[in-house]
Amino acid sequence: MKMNKKLLLIVLLSLAIISAIVLVLLTPKIQNQNGTTSLIPSANTPPAINLQPVSPSQILIINWSDVRIVSPKQLPYYTITSPLIDSNLIKNVAVSLGFSANDAKKTLTNSSYLYSKNNQSLFASTAQNQIQYTYSASPSSTAGFPSLTRINQKVSAYLQQFFPNQTFQSTSEPEYFYTISNDTYPQRTTPAKSNLVRLNYQQTLNGYPFLTTATGNSIISFTYDSNQILHSIEISGGYLQTSANTNLNILDLPALKQIASQKAVSLSLDAITDVVAQIQNSAAVTLDVSDISLVYFATPSSSQILPVFLIKGQLKGNSFGAVRASYIVPAAK
């Protein structure tokens, strides 16, 4: 009888070991760039967006009006296997903008680059996946952009120089500003009253726009003054190559409405600095939705590109007037 119990224990232990081996073999895996393998999330466990609300305690009230969207049942998320920005691109941009090896400055890390001469500077980081060029002289005081033809030609030439094998799309209408210096947040205005214009460009992925947290939520932006002088270039995020991962189950509109107030993260605010501070300090704000769409999103330093709902509208509060705003909500269930 004792032998039978011992034999039964051995059989049960063997079955447990075999089950564990089978479970490991059947669990989906992904091959990492370093040759190792790791488990990939299932369709019910998407990666996190890694963005937190500016004011976690703020109450967001959403008025949906009659907006509509038909969502696909599933979409994959993507991993950036080759970032847009590398050391070759940085050197290419530096040379194209007139910097030489003598203009290069020492930096604290091997992943950072700094060029500087006269009123021009170029900072770049492969770790942060960004390039920032700035011409710090005051822009022309002449107001008005009767035509953008020449500026568009200059931008097209830069895009071809920087990214000969990549395609970028204009994200929206040009943005016009007026400033008497180099304000961080110049005042938005009409083309006739402006002395700065910003042109934003984005990539697409799987047929959907790809947004980041950079200027204009775009991958690349160019800012020119009314004398057609380039004042800034920002390249942030983006990809050269991606790989598709598992499909994620996507929310439909009724399910989105149930979670949006709790899950929404502010992506952009069309407001001057003082108003932004008032919005962030408000206990409650209301968003009157005018548009909703599906897009892909990643922060510039993230390698995971996730589907999200982009919600646009007018944001209102007790301490400020209506401003244009956009929020994102994770699209996966």
In short:
Helix content is 20%, strand content 39%. By secondary structure, it is an alpha+beta fold. The chain has an 18-stranded mixed sheet that branches.
Structural class: alpha+beta
In total, how many domains does the architecture comprise?
Answer: 2
Order of helices and strands: HEEEEHEEEEHEEEEEEEEHEHEEE
Question: Per the principal axes of the C-alpha atoms, what is the gross shape?
Answer: globular
Tally of contiguous helical segments:
5
* Average predicted confidence as pLDDT: 84
Strand fraction equals 35-45%
User: Stretches where pLDDT falls below 50 for ≥5 residues?
Assistant: 1-44
Q: How much is the radius of gyration in Å?
A: 25 Å
Distance between termini? 54 Å
- How many beta-strand runs? 20
Share of helix, binned: 10-25%
Q: State the major sheet.
A: 18 strands, mixed
General description of the model:
With 333 residues, this protein is of the alpha+beta class. It has two domains: 139 residues, no CATH class; 150 residues, no CATH class. The radius of gyration is 25 Å and the shape is globular. The N terminus is likely disordered.
